[in-house]
Protein backbone atom coordinates (compact mmCIF):
# COMPACT_ATOMS: atom_id res chain seq x y z
CA UNK A 1 0.00 0.00 0.00
CA UNK A 2 1.42 3.36 -0.92
CA UNK A 3 1.22 6.79 0.54
CA UNK A 4 -1.24 9.29 -0.85
CA UNK A 5 -0.04 12.60 -2.24
CA UNK A 6 -2.78 14.22 -0.16
CA UNK A 7 -1.19 13.72 3.22
CA UNK A 8 -3.32 14.27 6.29
CA UNK A 9 -0.75 16.65 7.76
CA UNK A 10 -1.62 19.85 9.59
CA UNK A 11 0.81 21.56 7.23
CA UNK A 12 -1.00 21.98 3.90
CA UNK A 13 2.28 22.14 1.96
CA UNK A 14 2.70 18.45 2.58
CA UNK A 15 -0.35 17.80 0.42
CA UNK A 16 1.81 18.42 -2.64
CA UNK A 17 5.34 17.68 -1.43
CA UNK A 18 5.15 14.89 1.20
CA UNK A 19 8.88 14.15 0.94
CA UNK A 20 10.05 17.76 1.30
CA UNK A 21 10.42 20.09 4.23
CA UNK A 22 8.94 23.58 3.94
CA UNK A 23 12.43 25.02 3.36
CA UNK A 24 13.19 22.50 0.66
CA UNK A 25 9.88 23.28 -0.95
CA UNK A 26 10.89 26.90 -1.43
CA UNK A 27 13.99 25.78 -3.29
CA UNK A 28 12.19 23.20 -5.38
CA UNK A 29 13.42 23.43 -8.94
CA UNK A 30 11.47 23.30 -12.17
CA UNK A 31 8.84 20.59 -12.48
CA UNK A 32 7.93 19.84 -16.06
CA UNK A 33 5.30 17.40 -17.19
CA UNK A 34 6.63 16.16 -20.52
CA UNK A 35 4.50 15.58 -23.60
CA UNK A 36 2.69 12.28 -23.63
CA UNK A 37 2.65 10.96 -27.19
CA UNK A 38 -0.12 8.57 -26.32
CA UNK A 39 -2.48 11.19 -25.00
CA UNK A 40 -1.29 13.96 -27.30
CA UNK A 41 -1.28 16.75 -24.75
CA UNK A 42 1.02 18.42 -22.27
CA UNK A 43 0.72 20.39 -19.09
CA UNK A 44 3.60 22.64 -18.09
CA UNK A 45 4.33 23.60 -14.51
CA UNK A 46 7.27 25.53 -13.13
CA UNK A 47 8.19 26.44 -9.59
CA UNK A 48 11.22 28.62 -8.87
CA UNK A 49 12.61 29.79 -5.57
CA UNK A 50 11.32 33.31 -6.10
CA UNK A 51 7.92 32.17 -7.33
CA UNK A 52 7.46 29.82 -4.40
CA UNK A 53 8.28 32.62 -1.99
CA UNK A 54 5.92 35.06 -3.74
CA UNK A 55 3.08 32.55 -3.86
CA UNK A 56 3.57 30.75 -0.57
CA UNK A 57 -0.08 31.02 0.38
CA UNK A 58 -1.35 29.60 -2.86
CA UNK A 59 0.82 26.54 -3.54
CA UNK A 60 2.78 25.75 -6.67
CA UNK A 61 2.78 28.23 -9.50
CA UNK A 62 1.44 26.89 -12.77
CA UNK A 63 1.72 28.35 -16.23
CA UNK A 64 -1.50 30.26 -16.81
CA UNK A 65 -1.46 30.69 -20.58
CA UNK A 66 -4.13 33.27 -21.50
CA UNK A 67 -5.47 33.55 -17.94
CA UNK A 68 -3.69 36.87 -17.30
CA UNK A 69 -6.88 38.35 -15.90
CA UNK A 70 -6.29 36.19 -12.84
CA UNK A 71 -3.05 37.94 -11.91
CA UNK A 72 -2.89 39.33 -8.41
CA UNK A 73 -5.37 36.82 -7.05
CA UNK A 74 -4.74 33.62 -5.14
CA UNK A 75 -7.02 31.99 -7.69
CA UNK A 76 -4.36 32.69 -10.34
CA UNK A 77 -2.54 29.56 -9.17
CA UNK A 78 -5.66 27.41 -9.17
CA UNK A 79 -5.51 26.55 -12.88
CA UNK A 80 -3.25 24.59 -15.21
CA UNK A 81 -3.68 25.36 -18.90
CA UNK A 82 -3.12 22.76 -21.60
CA UNK A 83 -0.36 24.11 -23.85
CA UNK A 84 -1.57 22.12 -26.86
CA UNK A 85 -3.89 24.51 -28.73
CA UNK A 86 -6.01 21.56 -29.87
CA UNK A 87 -7.43 21.59 -26.34
CA UNK A 88 -8.54 25.21 -26.72
CA UNK A 89 -6.49 26.53 -23.79
CA UNK A 90 -8.71 24.55 -21.47
CA UNK A 91 -8.28 25.52 -17.82
CA UNK A 92 -7.97 22.50 -15.55
CA UNK A 93 -8.32 22.88 -11.81
CA UNK A 94 -5.19 22.49 -9.68
CA UNK A 95 -5.93 21.69 -6.05
CA UNK A 96 -4.12 24.24 -3.88
CA UNK A 97 -3.94 23.78 -0.08
CA UNK A 98 -6.70 26.35 0.40
CA UNK A 99 -8.94 24.69 -2.19
CA UNK A 100 -8.30 21.23 -0.73
CA UNK A 101 -9.28 22.47 2.73
CA UNK A 102 -12.52 23.72 1.20
CA UNK A 103 -13.05 20.37 -0.52
CA UNK A 104 -12.67 18.52 2.78
CA UNK A 105 -15.30 20.72 4.42
CA UNK A 106 -17.70 19.28 1.84
CA UNK A 107 -16.96 15.62 2.61
CA UNK A 108 -19.66 13.82 4.60
CA UNK A 109 -17.43 11.74 6.83
CA UNK A 110 -19.24 9.46 9.31
CA UNK A 111 -18.12 9.86 12.92
CA UNK A 112 -16.71 6.33 13.10
CA UNK A 113 -14.53 7.02 10.05
CA UNK A 114 -13.31 10.28 11.55
CA UNK A 115 -12.30 8.46 14.72
CA UNK A 116 -10.45 5.79 12.74
CA UNK A 117 -8.70 8.43 10.63
CA UNK A 118 -7.54 10.32 13.71
CA UNK A 119 -6.28 7.16 15.44
CA UNK A 120 -4.46 6.11 12.26
CA UNK A 121 -2.81 9.55 12.09
CA UNK A 122 -0.89 8.67 15.28
CA UNK A 123 0.47 5.45 13.78
CA UNK A 124 3.55 4.73 11.75
CA UNK A 125 2.78 4.76 8.04
CA UNK A 126 -0.38 6.85 8.46
CA UNK A 127 0.20 8.34 5.00
CA UNK A 128 -0.94 5.02 3.54
CA UNK A 129 -4.52 5.78 4.52
CA UNK A 130 -6.74 7.06 1.72
CA UNK A 131 -8.05 10.61 2.03
CA UNK A 132 -11.66 11.28 3.13
CA UNK A 133 -12.66 12.46 -0.34
CA UNK A 134 -11.30 9.23 -1.85
CA UNK A 135 -13.24 7.12 0.66
CA UNK A 136 -16.41 9.05 -0.11
CA UNK A 137 -15.95 8.40 -3.85
CA UNK A 138 -15.40 4.67 -3.27
CA UNK A 139 -18.54 4.44 -1.15
CA UNK A 140 -20.56 6.28 -3.78
CA UNK A 141 -19.31 3.97 -6.56
CA UNK A 142 -20.42 0.96 -4.52
CA UNK A 143 -23.84 2.53 -4.02
CA UNK A 144 -24.24 3.51 -7.69
CA UNK A 145 -23.34 -0.03 -8.75
CA UNK A 146 -25.66 -1.56 -6.21
CA UNK A 147 -22.69 -3.77 -5.38
CA UNK A 148 -23.15 -6.57 -2.86
CA UNK A 149 -19.85 -8.44 -3.13
CA UNK A 150 -16.60 -6.44 -2.93
CA UNK A 151 -12.86 -6.99 -2.54
CA UNK A 152 -10.19 -4.74 -1.11
CA UNK A 153 -6.53 -5.49 -1.77
CA UNK A 154 -4.48 -3.64 0.85
CA UNK A 155 -6.50 -2.70 3.94
CA UNK A 156 -4.01 -1.03 6.31
CA UNK A 157 -6.15 0.13 9.27
CA UNK A 158 -9.40 -0.22 7.35
CA UNK A 159 -10.50 3.33 6.52
CA UNK A 160 -11.48 2.65 2.91
CA UNK A 161 -12.86 -0.84 3.60
CA UNK A 162 -14.97 0.51 6.46
CA UNK A 163 -16.33 3.22 4.17
CA UNK A 164 -17.33 0.48 1.72
CA UNK A 165 -18.77 -1.85 4.36
CA UNK A 166 -20.92 0.93 5.80
CA UNK A 167 -22.83 1.32 2.51
CA UNK A 168 -23.16 -2.38 1.69
CA UNK A 169 -26.57 -3.95 2.35
CA UNK A 170 -26.90 -6.22 5.37
CA UNK A 171 -26.42 -9.20 3.07
CA UNK A 172 -23.29 -7.59 1.57
CA UNK A 173 -19.89 -9.23 1.61
CA UNK A 174 -16.43 -7.61 1.58
CA UNK A 175 -13.19 -9.59 1.29
CA UNK A 176 -10.42 -7.55 2.96
CA UNK A 177 -6.85 -8.66 2.16
CA UNK A 178 -3.96 -7.37 4.29
CA UNK A 179 -0.54 -8.81 5.16
CA UNK A 180 0.21 -6.64 8.22
CA UNK A 181 -1.33 -8.21 11.32
CA UNK A 182 -1.05 -5.19 13.64
CA UNK A 183 -2.82 -2.76 11.33
CA UNK A 184 -5.42 -5.43 10.56
CA UNK A 185 -6.28 -5.63 14.25
CA UNK A 186 -7.14 -1.92 14.21
CA UNK A 187 -9.34 -2.47 11.17
CA UNK A 188 -11.22 -5.36 12.78
CA UNK A 189 -11.80 -3.35 15.95
CA UNK A 190 -13.45 -0.59 13.93
CA UNK A 191 -15.47 -3.04 11.82
CA UNK A 192 -16.86 -4.34 15.11
CA UNK A 193 -17.53 -0.87 16.55
CA UNK A 194 -19.34 0.15 13.36
CA UNK A 195 -21.50 -2.98 13.39
CA UNK A 196 -20.25 -4.26 10.03
CA UNK A 197 -17.93 -7.06 11.13
CA UNK A 198 -20.41 -9.65 9.85
CA UNK A 199 -20.03 -8.19 6.35
CA UNK A 200 -16.22 -8.42 6.25
CA UNK A 201 -14.18 -11.53 5.48
CA UNK A 202 -10.67 -10.62 6.68
CA UNK A 203 -7.84 -12.47 4.94
CA UNK A 204 -4.45 -12.06 6.61
CA UNK A 205 -1.59 -12.81 4.25
CA UNK A 206 -0.47 -12.11 0.71
CA UNK A 207 -3.34 -10.77 -1.37
CA UNK A 208 -2.26 -12.61 -4.52
CA UNK A 209 -2.47 -15.93 -2.66
CA UNK A 210 -5.91 -15.06 -1.30
CA UNK A 211 -7.21 -14.11 -4.75
CA UNK A 212 -5.82 -17.25 -6.36
CA UNK A 213 -7.44 -19.35 -3.65
CA UNK A 214 -10.81 -17.66 -4.29
CA UNK A 215 -10.52 -18.45 -7.99
CA UNK A 216 -9.62 -22.07 -7.26
CA UNK A 217 -12.71 -22.35 -5.07
CA UNK A 218 -14.87 -21.37 -8.02
CA UNK A 219 -15.62 -17.77 -7.07
CA UNK A 220 -14.98 -16.56 -10.64
CA UNK A 221 -17.31 -13.83 -11.91
CA UNK A 222 -18.93 -13.32 -8.52
CA UNK A 223 -17.67 -9.93 -7.30
CA UNK A 224 -19.06 -6.52 -8.29
CA UNK A 225 -16.38 -4.13 -7.03
CA UNK A 226 -12.71 -4.16 -6.07
CA UNK A 227 -10.30 -1.56 -4.70
CA UNK A 228 -6.53 -1.99 -4.98
CA UNK A 229 -4.13 -0.07 -2.73
CA UNK A 230 -1.26 -2.47 -2.17
CA UNK A 231 2.23 -3.32 -3.46
CA UNK A 232 2.73 -1.28 -6.62
CA UNK A 233 4.97 -3.79 -8.36
CA UNK A 234 2.13 -6.32 -8.09
CA UNK A 235 -0.54 -4.13 -9.70
CA UNK A 236 -0.63 -6.01 -13.00
CA UNK A 237 -0.97 -9.39 -11.28
CA UNK A 238 -3.68 -8.11 -8.93
CA UNK A 239 -5.54 -6.66 -11.90
CA UNK A 240 -5.47 -9.90 -13.88
CA UNK A 241 -6.71 -11.90 -10.89
CA UNK A 242 -9.47 -9.41 -10.12
CA UNK A 243 -10.67 -9.46 -13.73
CA UNK A 244 -11.36 -13.14 -13.25
CA UNK A 245 -13.35 -12.42 -10.10
CA UNK A 246 -15.36 -9.54 -11.61
CA UNK A 247 -18.63 -10.35 -13.40
CA UNK A 248 -19.09 -10.14 -17.13
CA UNK A 249 -21.63 -7.63 -18.34
CA UNK A 250 -24.97 -9.03 -17.24
CA UNK A 251 -26.65 -6.24 -15.30
CA UNK A 252 -23.67 -3.93 -15.09
CA UNK A 253 -19.95 -4.50 -15.52
CA UNK A 254 -17.68 -5.22 -12.58
CA UNK A 255 -15.63 -2.25 -11.42
CA UNK A 256 -11.99 -2.22 -10.27
CA UNK A 257 -10.47 0.94 -8.76
CA UNK A 258 -6.67 1.25 -8.51
CA UNK A 259 -5.05 3.79 -6.19
CA UNK A 260 -1.76 5.75 -6.47
CA UNK A 261 -1.63 5.70 -10.25
CA UNK A 262 -0.08 9.21 -10.34
CA UNK A 263 2.50 8.25 -7.66
CA UNK A 264 3.25 11.76 -6.34
CA UNK A 265 3.62 12.95 -9.94
CA UNK A 266 6.66 10.72 -10.49
CA UNK A 267 5.02 8.84 -13.37
CA UNK A 268 5.18 12.02 -15.49
CA UNK A 269 8.83 12.76 -14.68
CA UNK A 270 11.16 10.99 -17.16
CA UNK A 271 14.07 11.45 -14.77
CA UNK A 272 12.45 9.26 -12.11
CA UNK A 273 13.01 5.59 -12.85
CA UNK A 274 12.87 3.67 -9.58
CA UNK A 275 11.24 0.25 -9.68
CA UNK A 276 7.87 1.29 -8.19
CA UNK A 277 7.51 4.27 -10.51
CA UNK A 278 8.38 2.15 -13.54
CA UNK A 279 5.85 -0.48 -12.44
CA UNK A 280 3.03 2.04 -12.15
CA UNK A 281 4.04 3.75 -15.39
CA UNK A 282 4.01 0.40 -17.21
CA UNK A 283 0.70 -0.56 -15.60
CA UNK A 284 -0.89 2.71 -16.74
CA UNK A 285 0.43 2.15 -20.26
CA UNK A 286 -0.91 -1.41 -20.36
CA UNK A 287 -4.27 -0.32 -19.01
CA UNK A 288 -4.55 2.38 -21.67
CA UNK A 289 -4.40 -0.29 -24.36
CA UNK A 290 -6.49 -2.94 -22.55
CA UNK A 291 -9.75 -3.37 -24.49
CA UNK A 292 -11.22 -5.63 -21.80
CA UNK A 293 -12.06 -2.59 -19.68
CA UNK A 294 -13.33 0.96 -19.96
CA UNK A 295 -11.19 3.34 -17.91
CA UNK A 296 -11.19 6.77 -16.32
CA UNK A 297 -8.09 8.18 -14.60
CA UNK A 298 -9.21 10.55 -11.84
CA UNK A 299 -6.83 13.06 -10.16
CA UNK A 300 -8.13 12.52 -6.63
CA UNK A 301 -5.73 11.74 -3.77
CA UNK A 302 -2.63 10.32 -5.42
CA UNK A 303 -4.64 9.48 -8.52
CA UNK A 304 -7.15 6.67 -9.03
CA UNK A 305 -8.13 4.78 -12.16
CA UNK A 306 -11.67 3.45 -12.36
CA UNK A 307 -12.01 0.38 -14.60
CA UNK A 308 -15.27 -1.16 -15.77
CA UNK A 309 -15.07 -4.67 -17.14
CA UNK A 310 -16.62 -4.85 -20.60
From TrEMBL:
Any Pfam family hit: Methyltransf_3
Keyword annotations from UniProtKB, A to Z: Lignin biosynthesis, Methyltransferase, S-adenosyl-L-methionine, Transferase
GO BP field: lignin biosynthetic process; methylation
Gene3D superfamilies on file: Vaccinia Virus protein VP39 (3.40.50.150)
InterPro entries per UniProt: Cation-dep_OMT, SAM-dependent_MTases_sf, SAM_O-MeTrfase
Protein family according to the UniProt entry: Belongs to the class I-like SAM-binding methyltransferase superfamily. Cation-dependent O-methyltransferase family.
Protein name according to UniProt: Uncharacterized protein
Species this chain originates from: Nyssa sinensis
Amino acid sequence: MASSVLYRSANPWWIFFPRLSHRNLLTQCTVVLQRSERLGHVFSATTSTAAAADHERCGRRFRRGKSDNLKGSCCADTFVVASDEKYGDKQVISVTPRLYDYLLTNVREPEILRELREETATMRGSQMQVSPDQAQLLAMLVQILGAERCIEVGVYTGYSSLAIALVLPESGHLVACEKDASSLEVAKRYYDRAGVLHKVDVKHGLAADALKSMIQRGEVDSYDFAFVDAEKRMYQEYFELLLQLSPMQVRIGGVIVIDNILWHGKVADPQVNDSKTISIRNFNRNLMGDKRVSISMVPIGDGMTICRKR
